[in-house]
Amino acid sequence: MISDIEQDKINMVVTKDLSRLGRDYIGTGEYIEKWFPEKNIRYVSVNDGIDTFYDNNGNNDIAPFKSILNDMYSKDLSKKIRSALHTMQSQGKWVGGRTPLGYIQDPEDKNHLIIDEDEAKIVRTIFNMAVAGNSVGTIRKFLEDNNIPTSDQIRYNRATFWNNCTIKKLLRREVYTGVTIQNKRSRISYKNRKLRDNPKEQWFIVENTHTPIIDKKTFDAVQKMEIVQKYNRNEKKNYTLLDGIMFCYECGHTIGIKLDNRRKTMNTICNNYRRNSKLHLCTCHGFRYDEIEEKVLEYLRKLFLDIDSKKIEINVKNNRTAYDYKKMIEKNEKEIELINNKMDTMYMDKLDNKISEEMYQRVLGKYKEEIKAKEQENIEMKQYQHELEEDNTENITKVVKEFLGLKKPTPELMRVIINKIRLHQDKQIDIIFNFKELNKI
Do 199 and 319 belong together in one domain? Predict the structure, then answer.
């Protein structure tokens, strides 16, 4: 609809009531009071009697308050739903969406898991192979060679493939011992749909909620094995200079480095190709690592020798920061202006006895808090922007001097300079710098 409005295909928007346009009062007000008028759009809410075509329509003036009530209704409803879900989770009832491989929802009780024998055989096979001492790669190869389908293939007929990460996650899932663990993640708020991890203290862990597929002894034995241990790159002892910053240009996956014991050389390899070579998802990208490293170092030396401090300062001043704080500040200022307009309208409604003094004071307080929060946010963003602009020039010159002063830079310094290196299958190399100014030179 927005696209059609932009193309002048629509001149009127009609909804059953105001809540069908939106429950976020700021967003709804932005549309009704600014965006629709700018696009010459007439808005009508049938049940609320709102029609922006008529300036003297009293229902138009009360629209901001109805938007606030709709927003409050959403917030209250969200709290009630979350409370109900937490109650069910604390009782060990399944309230998740997709069930783990090996389980389905009980047809007679959707909050209870029952075993799907066909899928459970796959889970038992994976655990038995792990207990027998097989590596993740061996297990994955067995699953592929025997055409054992993934959960996506079984349930949704999607062309997906087994990978090491999926198998490791499956081996760590305590649900296969009859334990239900929920509330590991939650949404930030009823307005923000992004998920964040919850601390373990907030998890709901209830034992013996369903029939186990794997006995506790087998599960505990697997957890002690190296096969399920989480790999922490920060604990890796032998970094190569470009380790962790090389990526495949063709498929976007990381480029690994493997040792050729026979020739005593190190070669690059696309990890996507390495894991799925039979599926032909990418090509090998197998090149001599030392040649790639030397090309990168040679390019950096030449680049830095050609850079003088004045050129860096000019680039910094012309391109202040990678994050556009200016737009964020302008957005906040527009929202503050919109709230101030609503406060003016609300004051006139109070004088005309359209709203009570109690409602006026309550909503006024809410508006003032929002304005204060946005003004404080702008102050912080301006300060951070100022600091970032000042520091960037100094950071670049410091890194350049440090790089040129070393015969061979460290992996840590390379990560300061380079964001990623993209390796093409024809051996072409793209370097993306962490400093936006260097990408433009």
Answer: no
Q: Domain limits at 15?
A: 2-83
Domain-ending residue, one of 210, 228, 246: 228
Residue 14 β-bridge partners: 44
| 174/239 same-domain check | no
| Phi then psi dihedrals of residue 47, to 5 deg | -70, -30
Indicate if 42 and 126 belong to the same structural domain: no
Q: Which residues of the chain have pLDDT under 70?
A: 189-193, 226-227, 229-239, 278-279, 306-325, 383-399, 404, 406-408, 435-441
Q: Does 77 lie in the same domain as 165?
A: no
Distances (CA, A) of 325 to 35, 36, 276, 434, 439: 23, 27, 42, 18, 20
| Residue 258 shares a structural domain with residue 333 | yes
> pLDDT by residue (tens digit) across 241-291?
888 889 998 888 889 888 877 777 889 999 888 877 766 778 888 898 989
Listing DSSP states for 204-256 in one string gives EEESSSS--SS-HHHHHHHHTSGGGPPP-GGG-S---TTTTSEEETTT-PBEE
Question: Do 109 and 189 reside in the same domain of the chain?
Answer: yes
The long-range contacts involving 337-346, CB below 8 angstroms and separated by at least 24 positions, are 338/26, 338/29, 338/30, 338/33, 338/34, 339/26, 339/367, 339/370, 339/371, 340/371, 341/33, 342/29, 342/64, 342/367, 343/367, 345/61, 345/64, 346/64, 346/65
Spatial separation of the C-alpha atoms in residues 55 and 276, rounded to whole Å:
65
Number of H helices, E strands in the chain: 17, 14
Separation between Cα atoms, residue 431 and residue 438, nearest integer Å: 10
How remote is the C-alpha of 38 from its chain's centroid?
33
Which CATH number belongs to the domain containing residue 171 in this structure? 3.90.1750.20
pLDDT digits (tens, 9 = 90+) for 346-397: 888 888 887 788 778 878 888 888 888 888 877 877 765 665 555 455 566 6
CATH code of the domain in which 56 resides = 3.40.50.1390
Same-domain check for residues 281 and 361:
yes
Count of structural domains, the chain:
3
Among 228, 260, 295, which residue terminates a domain? 228
Unique residue bearing structure tokens 């050389």: 265
Helix (H, G, I), strand (E, B) or coil at 182: strand
d(CA 100, CA 155): 11
436 with 299, same domain: the answer is: yes
Burial code (b: 16+ CB inside 10 Å, e: under 16) for 246-273 equals bbbbbbebebbbeeeeeeeeebbbbbbb
What is the distance between the alpha carbons of residues 301 and 298, in angstroms, rounded to a whole number? 5
